[in-house]
Amino acid sequence: MSFFFCFFRDEAEEDYDPHLHRQVSKPTNNIETLVHLLKCSLGTGILAMPQAFARAGLVTGIIATVLVGILVTHCLHVLVRSQYVACKHLRVPLLSYPDSVATALGCGPQVLRKFARPAALAVDIFLVVYQLGICCVYIVFIADNIKKVVDSYYVIAAELHMLIILGPLIAFNLIPSLKLLAPFSALANLMTFVGLGIVVYYLVIGKKPSAKDAPLDLWGSIETFPLFFGTVLFALTAVGVVIALENNMKTPKAFGKPLGVLNVGMTIIVLLYVAVGALGYVYCVSDCRDSITLDLPEKDPLATSVMVIFAIAIFISYGLHCYVPVEVLWKGYLLPRVDSSSPQKVRLCEYALRVGLCLLTFILAVAVPRLGLFISLFGALCLSALGICFPVLMEVCVTFPQRASAARTIVFGKDAILFVIGVIGLLAGTYTALDSIIRSFAPTENA
To answer: For the residues of 312-365, what is the DSSP string, one character each?
Structure first.
């Protein structure tokens, strides 16, 4: 396999530009790509930012969100550049994330080359776990918001709300094509923008009654900071989206420029997250729930409409996010093992996979109905690896064949520091989130 060999740069390879050989049926311009990037970053993550600020403190939350935003943006640049170099090595216009990692490690130090195939498998695992984690978060989010709306009329457990929406979720997840999901996606995007505007309106004009006399925590606690880190990573890091957007651009070289799509988009996103996080924390202080929508006034028609809007929008987004693990597992691992001579059997197996993944996310959501902790867990576990560790590892490997120089040494040192940060974030964030989940089920002292 060519993935496991270092490709030395001859003159022909230097002349090969993957961007010039991409054949995209409907490429997007810079503005369209920027809009897509913004749309993909406005979901449950931004609604969880007030609770994240409650865990980190107001001042720490603002500073740390900006720093994590810079870190994430840099690592996304590193990922896109490294993927470009990997494409040049293989002289192909496009590579998937797992194939890019395998190709990069194949060009790195001898000790890393034997990990090329396991690394590609690890990326697939992290991608599938992350996307299924998002689906779990979505189920809990929908149930929690519907419950708050319905509780005014009839009180039932959140788990029953999850069971009620399970059938529609399975049916929606059986839609096999992204093209068929596109109209629903457009509706979800519109509803999300409208809902977010109403949420900001409430955060600006008032304050949660239980928080009127509560003091603001400016600096937070080191014990809960890993939960904040996981939430911010979950909210800001859209690895798969960034790769897909750059691959589909009419002018992909404009994506990573100093004033290009990625920098402009991430600047806007970070500012939005800081604003919603800070305003939401001031609105509810330490009494922040997993989603800021749950802190809005009860029995208020406009606030109720926001919860319904977001519940519908996230319901639609569930099918879009579940599409990714289906594609990875089905095309990469299961389809080659299915008897292709029987189209009906192939279709039945694909539907079984879709239903099985939907049931898996439902079971996890019912077993651990902790929205905020789910967000922190999957952010720390998956995105520390996908958004930090693997990109800097790729950069080290694609830089390794270059002649030794001060610049190469600086890159190695910088990437080593970022890799350590990613590993610490993964371990500390995952441990803290799991520990908090376990303690959330422990009986209280008064019980």
So the answer is: HHHHHHHHHHHHHHHHHHIIIIIGGGS-TT-HHHHHHHHHHHHHHHHHHHHHHH
With residue 255 as reference, give the H or E element that holds it.
Answer: none
Q: Are 105 and 393 in contact (CB under 8 A)?
A: yes
The pLDDT tens digits of the residues spanning 379-420 come to 999 999 999 999 999 999 999 988 888 989 999 999 999 999
340 touches 222 (CB < 8 A): no
Q: Are 83 and 95 in contact (CB under 8 A)?
A: yes
| Separation CA 133–CA 360 (nearest Å) | 10
Q: CA 136 to CA 374: how far, in whole Å?
A: 8
pLDDT band at 7 (very low <50, low <70, confident <90, very high): very low
CB atoms within 10 A of CB 185: 16
- The length of the chain is 447
Query: DSSP for 14-52?
Result: HH--GGGG---SS-B-HHHHHHHHHHHT-SHHHHTHHHH
Give the single-character DSSP code of 256. Answer: S
* pLDDT one-digit tens code per residue, 88-111: 989 999 999 999 999 999 988 999
CB 321 within 8 A of CB 142: no
